[in-house]
Structure formats: structure tokens, C-alpha cells
Design a protein that fits this description.
With about 190 residues, the protein is an all-alpha fold. It contains 6 helices and no strands.
Length: about 190
């Protein structure tokens, strides 16, 4: 069982919001788009709040460290796939975003295995804001006006840029770690 604190409850609520959003979008739910947009907006708000509460209340848990990023990815990926199936989003856009999310998750696992913690950069935070804004706008506007299309392309661009930043940042940190170990072995003791 996980520690029952406010940040963890918010994370679990975000996970529970995912099927509500999908059903509201894909089923013929009365006012489904409005319901999906409202639930998505509340779930996205909890993303920022759970981290804030965890840090400010010294309530960081292993559960939260593992489940918070998973909840974020489930929220975005489920919404993207739903929007693709409704023909509101091009499949290639969803695939670029989903591939980046999976790749960064893999990079974080590799880094953790080597004792390196990769914190969210400002580029990653900007990517999240743009993705949330783009998904929310795609839920609200049907058909999407030019401004929404531009927001989607900005989200894709930031997704690629922040993914490259994670990749090159990890590569640099692994190289520094390798040099440190090699240097430590060759120094006289």
C-alpha cells in the first residue's frame, strides 16, 4: 500500500480521471467535450499541485516519485489517442509526443540505474504546459482554428527539443561519470 497523503491522493485522482476523459470523448456522452475538458483541466491542475504539496510538506514518497510521472503520461497519451480516433489530431503528432515520452522514461531508467537523477528541466516543464494547452484546446474547439493548430505545432517542437535536451544531458552526465571513475582509478593512492 502507498502512504496516504495529499500529493499521492492527487496522483491517484489524476489516474482515475483518465478513463472519464476517454469515455466522455469517445462515447456519445451528453456534453462529452465539455465534461472531458473540465476533467482534463482539473487533472492537469493536480499535476502541479501534487509536486508542490509533496515538496512543501516534506511528503515526497517512493510511490509519488514513480506514479506521478506515470499519471502525467497516462493523462496525455490517453487524450492524444482519443483525439486521433476522433480525427481531431494527426496520428504523426501523437506518435512524436508518445515516442518522446517513452524515450525519456527509458532514459530516466538508464540514468537511475547508474545513480544519476534527471530532474525536470525548464524545457520539460514548458513542454508539459504546451502539451496540456494543446490537448485542452483540441478538446474544446471542433474544428480547430489556426491558433490551436499553431499551439499543437509549438507543443510538438518543444516535445522534440526537450527530448533532445534530456538525451544530450544524460549523455554528458554519463561521460562525466565515466571520466570521474577513470580518473579516480589512475590517480596514485
Amino acid at each position: 500500500m502507498f502512504p496516504l497523503n495529499l500529493p499521492n491522493v492527487l496522483t491517484v485522482l489524476r489516474i482515475l480521471a483518465v478513463p472519464v476523459i476517454v469515455v466522455a470523448l469517445l462515447d456519445e456522452t451528453p456534453n462529452g467535450d465539455a465534461l472531458a475538458a473540465g476533467v482534463f483541466a482539473l487533472a492537469a491542475l493536480t499535476d502541479g499541485l501534487d509536486g508542490y504539496f509533496a515538496r512543501s510538506r516534506d511528503a515526497v514518497t517512493t510511490f509519488g516519485k514513480l506514479m506521478d510521472p506515470l499519471a502525467d503520461k497516462l493523462l496525455i497519451v490517453a487524450a492524444l489517442i482519443s483525439l486521433v480516433s476522433l480525427d481531431r489530431l494527426a496520428a504523426w503528432v501523437a506518435m512524436v509526443i508518445i515516442a518522446r515520452e517513452l524515450a525519456v522514461t527509458g532514459l530516466r531508467a538508464v540514468a537511475a540505474e547508474r545513480g544519476i537523477v534527471i530532474s525536470a528541466s525548464w524545457l520539460g516543464k514548458a513542454k508539459t504546459v504546451l502539451q496540456i494547452g494543446a490537448v485542452f484546446a483540441l478538446i474544446i474547439f471542433e474544428p480547430a482554428p489556426l491558433g490551436v493548430d499553431l499551439l499543437v505545432y509549438a507543443a510538438v517542437a518543444m516535445t522534440v527539443i526537450s527530448g533532445a535536451d534530456y538525451f544530450f544531458g544524460l549523455r554528458r552526465r554519463l561521460e562525466e561519470q565515466r571520466q570521474h571513475r577513470t580518473g579516480a582509478k589512475t590517480e596514485p593512492g
